Amino acid sequence: MITDAEINKLATLSRIKLTPEETQSLIKEVGAILAYVDEIKKASIAEMPQEASVGAVKNITRADVAENSGVQEAILDEAPDREGDFIGVKKILG
Amino acid sequence: MKSIDLTTLTVTKAHEAMLAGDFTAVELAQAYLDQIAKLDGGAKGTGASAGIHAYLEVFTDTLDQARVADERFNQEKKGGLKTSLLNGIPCAVKDNILIQGHIASCASKMLEHYTATYDATAIKRLREHGVVFIGRTNMDEFAMGGSTENSAFGTTRNPHDLERVPGGTSGGSAAAIVGQMALISLGSDTGGSIRQPSSFCGVVGLKPTYGAVSRHGLTAAVSSLDQIGPITRTVADAEILFGAIRGKDVMDGTTIDATTYPEISKKSDGKLTVGIPRKFMQLGGISPEVTRVFAEAEERFRALGYNIVDIDLPNNQYALPVYYIINFAEVSSNLSRFDGVRYGFHADGKTGIEDYFETRAAGFGREARRRILLGTYVLSSGYYDAYYNRANALRRLITEDFISAFKKCDIIMTPTAPTPAFKIGEKISDPVAMYLEDIFTVTANLTGLPAMSIPAGVTSEAFAQKASATGARLPIGVQLTAPHGAEASLFHSGKAFLGEK
């Protein structure tokens, strides 16, 4: 079973604030879901793969070259707090 | 103008009619707009509306786009360029696919006011064909759910029975087709999100081979599983739409081309062999209505001269838990970008770090928050091997099972979903029950195989009398799965099954 403390730790790592009521309902729901996915522990697996893969698709790379997207203004406009060509955030260092 | 019969309209028929001057693209778009006005109910945010609520927004420039399409027809008639089959065809687009200048909210409060700064590749390609984008359709928030009830802007209702869900997550796109509120639509499929709503609504839905369609401009849910695909009334329309959006794209490194799966000397015409994983289908939880329709579908293929064989998929019993572990893990990573700083919703705390906690608590809905926590759990250092790595190992075994099954058959048939459309509210408070809806669909995403749901039958009269106030008979689909890159086998067998030319 999963505890309050574990749920709160996950919430902290996930950067999500939970209400006490939500923590309680998550204990039940997350517990039930983990009990369900624990099913895979019964499977016998001969060899663990080194990396995930889907069909014949392989990782590819491209040159890391900066280009002008032409949509800089539109992207900046989406920021909740825009200051000139910057995105505003709260002061981090006191 | 001849009156337009939307109930039997197809892309090819509409194209011929517009070329012949029976009706214009503007008149066609107007016919769908009229249907929307009649059936779709209130605007955004009116969750309690009595209408279908397939659309989150109907675009105000729809008729302007149609006018441009009409101009292209005029040019063709004057000896200009031949128009695409898709010129002037009204298309509904799931709200997680970007259309430049339009909101793309993923049915989340997090992106309620987010305006796309570019076109998704699929949209760009359809634009070149002259497609008319009619609006953006409702979905489960960030493509997580199986009913469209997880939308932050109210649920979509099943046009066959308004008390029932249309399925999800592409519920709005499927409901728009069956409600004749668009001729074609785009959805996305992470674990069945195109196919299960297609089954519930009685339409055709294709999840292409992983990499067949570019995801550039599709908001990422589970990057190793997501695909964009068509939802349409006929298999032929799905084939046309797929043909227009598929293909390699430099903006999506996972896209494939015709050389990726060269072994497709697979039979894709004539009488195919259909494999049925009978043992897997005895797992339980399948509605007797689905079992009956499935048996009838098997008979229909036999009557067409198709060969039916039994196949074994021994690791399929683990597919659903494997799928959810991978889903949680990738969702928690993909949704970490929503921090209230660069774009989207922002809620203020006292400090910078509090801004994150407040933003993500208020911006994400319940299911999104739950999955982010679960993903964080399965990826945390003590559990990574037991969950994520183990799931990936099983994912590989499941894929190998399918590849070896295809030595015995050309396509594999299962039900699309274990039940017909369920009632709104029936499963929303029990996440595991909702997850079980995906039992037959997740394997195509785990393996990257193409799969298509086609309408196969409806619930019996006795079931309908008991289950619905209106006595509506609900559609039930079957799912066909083909080898990597073998969408042609799906189109061929699907058309044969439905008696399409």
Overview of the structural elements:
The complex is a heterodimer of chains A (about 90) and B (about 500). Chain A is built from three helices and two strands. With about 90 residues, chain A is mainly alpha-helical. The model of chain A has no long low-confidence stretch (mean pLDDT about 90). Chain B has helices spanning about 10-20, 25-40, 60-75, 120-130, 170-180, 195-200, 235-245, 280, 290-305, 320-335, 350-365, 365-380, 385-405, 430-435, 440-445, 460-465, 485-500, and strands at about 55-60, 90-95, 130-135, 185-190, 205, 225-230, 275, 305-310, 410-415, 450-460, 475-480. An eleven-stranded mixed sheet of chain B has the order 1-3-2-4-6-5-10-11-9-7-8. Chain B is globular. Residues about 45-50 of chain B have low confidence and may be disordered.
Strand residue percentage of chain A: under 5%
**Low-confidence runs of chain B (pLDDT<50, min 5 residues)?**
43-48
Estimate percent helicity of chain B: 25-40%
Question: What is the SS-derived class of chain A?
Answer: mainly alpha
Please indicate the percent range of residues of chain B in DSSP E strands (runs of 2 or more): 5-15%
Strand order of the largest sheet of chain B: 1-3-2-4-6-5-10-11-9-7-8
List segments of chain A where confidence is low: pLDDT < 50 over at least 5 consecutive residues. Answer: none
Could you spell the SSE succession of chain A in H and E letters? HHHEE
End-to-end distance of chain B:
27 Å
The counted number of beta strands of chain A is 2
**What multimeric state do the chains show?**
heterodimer
Strand and helix layout:
The complex is a heterodimer of chains A (94) and B (501).
Chain A lengths: L3 H11 L5 H18 L34 H6 L4 E2 L2 E2 L7
Antiparallel strand pairs in A: 1-2
Chain B lengths: L10 H10 L4 H15 L15 E4 L3 H16 L12 E5 L26 H9 L2 E6 L33 H8 L5 E6 L5 H7 L2 E4 L19 E6 L2 H11 L27 E4 L1 H4 L6 H16 L3 E4 L8 H16 L17 H12 L2 H14 L5 H21 L5 E5 L15 H6 L5 H6 L3 E8 L2 H7 L7 E7 L5 H12 L3
Parallel strand pairs in B: 2-3, 2-4, 7-8, 7-9
Antiparallel strand pairs in B: 1-3, 4-6, 5-6, 5-10, 9-11, 10-11
Helix pairs in contact in B: 2-3, 7-17, 10-12, 10-13
